[in-house]
Write a structure and sequence with these properties.
With 65 residues, this protein is mainly α. It contains 2 helices and no strands. The mean pLDDT is 93.
Length: 65
Amino acid sequence: MKSIWFFVGLTLTIMGVLVVVAGIADYMAPPERSTVLAATHPALWWGGVMVAAGVVFLIRERRQQ
């Protein structure tokens, strides 16, 4: 039986990858109306944080088995 943390890690990793892909799309073709912090590319940062956290959860779960 899988622990809940495996599914949390898997969900974070998948959602993080989707956010990074959306951030890359916004970086390549920026929208016409920009937000105040658009120059910092928050989708890339937060997508990367989500992927990193998801991978940490997946690695920790794998070590515990």
